[in-house]
TrEMBL record:
It comes from the Bacteria. Residues 279-473 form the FAD-dependent protein C-terminal domain. This is Putative FAD-dependent dehydrogenase. InterPro entries: FAD-binding_protein (IPR028348), FAD-depend_C (IPR049516), FAD/NAD-bd_sf (IPR036188).
Length: 531
C-alpha cells in the first residue's frame, strides 16, 4: 500500500534521516517496515521567527494488510497509473510541425517524439550554445539581434531566467515536467521543493539535452528558421513557409511562438487567424539588497544554508486594479529583454546559486482592453510598444535603461543613484520613470509601496532601485481554440503555450505543450516510417 505522510517537521539543522523515524512513529510501526521512502515535498515555515522549520511530505510503502491509524496527515496514495495514450486514425500529411522551442514547443516536441511521431521543430533563433554569446554581445554592446535575444532562440523566453518552476495550475502533467527537467540535468530537489528553481546556468544545459533526446528519437530541430507564412486550404492548415525559403507541408502545426513574436502574430492575423485582446500587467523591476529581503523573511536565521536566498510575493487589490510583485529573482540580475529595436524591456534572471548582491522583482499593475485605446485584436501589442519606446527615450535613446530611486519615483523627480546599484545587463541612466508608464499604473504602484512595506519590512527603502519598463508579463493576445485544442476555424493548427494565451510561466507552458502533443497523438495515425 502506498502512502503519503504530511507535516513531518525538521529544524533547519535536522538530518533528513530523521524523517523516516517520524513517519514510522505516526504509523505506529518500526521504520524497518517502511519501504520506498521518498521526499515528495519540502517547504519552509517562516511564520515564527526564530523557530523557522522545514516541513516535509513523504511517500512510502507499507504492507497491504497494515491498519492505517486515523490521522489527517496520512493518506493512501491512489493508483496513479498513467492514462494510456493511443494513436488516432487521421492520416498525418508530412510530419507534425512545432513552431518554437520554448517550454511549450520543447515539451510538445518531446512527447510527440516519445510517442513515435517524429516532429519537425523550427526555431527562429539560434541553438542555445550560440544564443548565449549573441545575448551577451547584445547586453555588452547594445546591438540587438531581432531573431536571437532574450525572448527568441532555443529554450524560449525562460532560458535567461531564474528558472522558477512554481505554478498555480493543478495538472497531473506538472509532475512529468519536473521529472523530465530532472532527467535532463536539473537537481533532484526540484521534484519535491515547494518553490523549485533551476537557474539560467542549468537551464541552458537542460534545453540542449532535451533537443538531443528529441533528435535521438527521430525528431528534427531546425534553428535560424522562422515561420513567415502559413498555407491554408478550406479551413485546414496544409503547410508553413519558412525564412529559409522552403515550405514544410503538413496538416498538424503547433504554434508555440511565445508572447513576443509580434511579427508572426501580425502575419497570422493577416492570414485570418482569429485573435482576442487579453489583459496583462505592466510596471518596473525593483531591486533591493538581498540581505534586506533575507532578514525581513527569516530574521536571525537569515543566511542559514538550508534557507538560501529569500523570496517574496506581494499583492494589493486597489480600486479596479491590482499591484503585485511578479517573477521575483532572489540573488539575481535585471536583464535587458527587448526583441525590437528602439525599445527597453526589463525582466529578471538568476543562476542556480542565487548569490548576487541584489534581489529583483517586477512590480506591476494590471491593465486590460479598456486601457488599450483600440478594439483592434492586436491592440495590446501597440500598448506595450508605446511604453517600451518611452522607456528607450527616457534612457537617452541609446539603449540605456531608465533607472530611479524609489524615493525619487514617489516624488516625481529624476535624482541620482543611491546605495542600491543597478544590476541591469546594459547601460542605465537616471530618469523619471513616471514618464514611461500611464499615470493609473504609477499611481497604483505608489499606493502599493506603503502596504508592501508593512508586509515586508524594508520594501519601501528609499534607495530601492526601479528600472523601467516591464511590459512582457504575459501575452497581450489570445488565439481562441476549440474543444480539440485547434484554432477556431482552422483545423490542424494548434495554438499552444504562453503566446496563444494558454500559459503563464515555464511549467504551465510546458504542460500546455504536453497537452497539445497528447491531442495530436489521439487524433493522428502513427506512421510506420515518417521520412
Ligand atoms: P517562449 O518561451 O516565448 O518560446 C517561444 C519560442 O518560439 C521562442 O524560442 C521564439 O524564438 C520562437 N518563435 C517565435 N516566433 C517564431 C517563428 N515565427 N518561427 C519560429 N520560431 C518562433 N517563467 C517562469 O515560470 N519562471 C521564471 O523564473 C521565469 N523567468 C523569466 C525570465 C525572463 C528573462 C523571461 C523573458 C521570462 C521568464 N519567465 C519565467 C516566463 C517564461 O519564460 C515564459 O512563460 C515561457 O518561456 C513561455 O513558454 P512558451 O514556450 O509558451 O514561449
Amino acid at each position: 500500500m502506498k502512502l503519503v505522510i504530511s507535516n513531518l517537521i525538521l529544524s533547519l539543522d535536522g538530518p533528513q534521516e530523521a524523517l523516516k523515524q517520524q513517519a514510522a512513529k505516526k504509523l505506529g510501526i518500526k521504520h524497518q517496515n517502511i519501504t520506498n521512502f521518498k521526499i515528495v515535498k519540502q517547504s519552509i515555515d517562516a511564520r515564527k521567527k526564530p523557530g523557522i522549520r522545514l516541513v516535509y511530505s513523504i511517500s512510502c510503502e507499507v504492507d497491504d494488510c497494515f491498519q492505517i491509524p486515523g490521522d489527517r496527515d496520512i493518506k493512501i496514495l491512489a493508483d496513479s497509473r498513467e492514462e494510456i495514450l493511443l494513436p488516432g486514425s487521421k492520416p498525418v500529411e508530412g510530419r507534425p510541425l512545432v513552431i518554437g522551442t520554448g517550454p511549450a514547443g520543447l515539451f510538445c516536441g518531446l512527447v510527440l517524439a516519445q510517442n513515435g511521431y517524429r516532429p519537425i521543430i523550427i526555431e527562429r533563433g539560434q541553438k542555445v550554445e550560440e544564443r548565449a554569446g549573441t545575448v551577451e554581445r547584445c547586453w555588452n554592446a547594445g546591438i540587438l539581434d531581432t531573431e536571437t535575444n532574450v525572448q527568441f532562440g532555443e529554450g524560449g523566453a525562460g532560458t535567461f531566467s531564474d528558472g522558477k518552476l512554481t505554478t498555480r495550475i493543478n495538472d497531473r502533467r506538472c509532475e512529468k515536467v519536473l521529472e523530465e527537467f530532472h532527467r535532463f540535468g536539473a537537481p533532484e530537489e526540484i521534484t519535491y521543493k515547494a518553490k523549485p528553481h533551476i537557474g539560467t546556468d542549468n537551464l541552458k544545459k537542460i534545453v540542449a539535452n532535451m533537443r538531443k533526446e528529441i533528435e535521438r528519437l527521430g525528431g528534427t530541430v531546425l534553428f535560424n528558421t522562422k515561420a513567415v507564412d502559413v498555407k491554408l486550404r478550406d479551413g485546414q492548415i496544409c503547410g508553413v513557409v519558412t525564412s529559409t525559403n522552403s515550405t514544410i507541408e503538413t496538416n498538424a502545426v503547433v504554434l508555440a511562438i511565445g508572447h513576443s513574436a509580434r511579427d508572426t502574430f501580425r502575419m497570422l492575423y493577416d492570414r485570418g487567424v482569429p485573435f482576442e485582446q487579453k489583459p496583462f500587467s505592466i510596471g518596473v523591476r525593483i531591486e533591493h539588497p538581498q540581505e534586506l529581503i533575507n532578514t525581513a523573511q527569516y530574521g536571525a536565521a537569515s543566511g542559514h544554508p538550508a534557507l538560501g536566498a529569500a523570496d517574496y510575493q506581494l499583492f494589493m487589490k486597489g480600486a479596479g486594479r491590482t499591484a503585485y510583485s511578479f517573477c521575483m529573482c532572489p540573488g539575481g540580475i535585471v536583464v535587458a529583454s527587448a526583441s525590437e529595436p528602439g525599445s527597453i524591456v526589463t525582466n529578471g534572471m538568476s543562476e542556480y546559486s542565487r548569490d548576487r548582491e541584489n534581489a529583483n522583482s517586477a512590480l506591476v499593475v494590471s491593465v486590460g482592453p479598456a486601457d488599450f485605446g483600440t478594439g483592434h485584436p492586436l491592440g495590446g501589442i501597440e500598448f506595450q510598444r508605446r511604453w517600451e519606446r518611452l522607456a528607450y527615450a527616457a534612457g537617452g535613446s541609446n539603449n540605456s535603461a531608465p533607472v530611479q530611486r524609489l524615493e525619487d519615483f514617489l516624488n516625481n523627480r529624476t535624482g541620482r543613484l543611491g546605495s542600491v546599484k543597478p544590476s541591469y545587463t546594459g547601460e542605465t541612466r537616471c530618469a523619471d520613470i513616471n514618464e514611461c508608464l500611464p499615470p493609473y499604473v504609477t499611481d497604483c504602484m505608489k499606493q502599493s509601496i506603503n502596504y508592501f512595506d508593512r508586509k515586508l519590512r524594508g520594501f519601501g527603502m528609499k534607495d530601492a532601485l526601479l528600472t523601467g519598463v516591464e511590459t512582457r508579463t504575459s501575452s497581450p493576445v489570445r488565439i481562441p481554440r476549440n474543444d480539440a485544442f485547434e484554432c477556431m476555424g482552422i483545423a490542424g493548427l494548434y495554438p499552444c503555450g504562453e503566446g496563444a494565451g494558454y500559459a503563464g510561466g515555464i511549467v504551465s507552458a510546458a504542460v500546455d505543450g504536453i497537452r497539445i502533443a497528447e491531442q495530436i497523438v489521439r487524433t493522428y495515425a502513427l506512421k510506420k516510417s515518417i521520412t
